[in-house]
Write the structure tokens for this entry.
Amino acid sequence: MRRIKVNSPAKVNLYLEIKKKRSDGYHEIETLFQRVNLHDTILIEKINQTDIQITCKHPAVPNNSSNLAYKAVELLFHETGAKIGLKIHINKVIPVAAGLGGGSSNAATVMKAVNKMCSLGVSQAKLLKMGIKLGADVPFFLLDESCALGCGIGEVLEPVKNVPTYWYVIIYPKIHISSKWAYEHFKLSLTKKKPGATIMIRALKSANLEEIAPVLYNDLASVVGASYKEVQNAEKALRAAGVEAVLLSGSGPCVFGICQTEGEAEAVKASVSSMLGDVSIFICRTV
């Protein structure tokens, strides 16, 4: 196989609870990942040289060894001893550094695709162990399942099966929020009552948005919302459009609303477009 074209999907966090800060600087979390069909497209081609070439037209995506997809291939080749030249072109659609896991998805998607096209024979279990070296969200994108409960720093994964299809309206306010900043400004509280991921999973399987809306939860939402009016405005616009199930994804700035049907999502998009200024709005569904 000389070339392969693959889709690299985004994710949303339907639940995110911060448990504690570890000595290594990471935070122990409990989160519910859900993959959606908003995706980048990645073209991977074998070349005669033995180097790795990354190209992407998005100005915020590096075309060098600091790119997470580059690091993924480098790690894969280091672990297997492979010496193969590759050209990897990333067509970016997922907003960068927006709480949707685009970079982590690119890394995982490239790792899986290169393992297949170069017949490296690395097991999924080993890929998962390698993935955590690249980033906390990478292992989730290496799973076959599209929904999973993540513990530890997000790398201890338990697939969630039989999740109904939902439609998402995702608003990207076109601002940058550092994950490091968001986590550093969050203050752990022992008194705040939280619904728990198990309750969220049960609600998700009910196919009833009235059950889902009150148990969507993100510990970082109060921190980010209090500091960025653009995030507040996105949330208010979704609620004004009649969406009850609204949440910040990850550390933001993307905010999503959950709808039952594509038609409902289209109507919500039209409504919020008239309320907000310079934002990007995406409609996608669970995969």
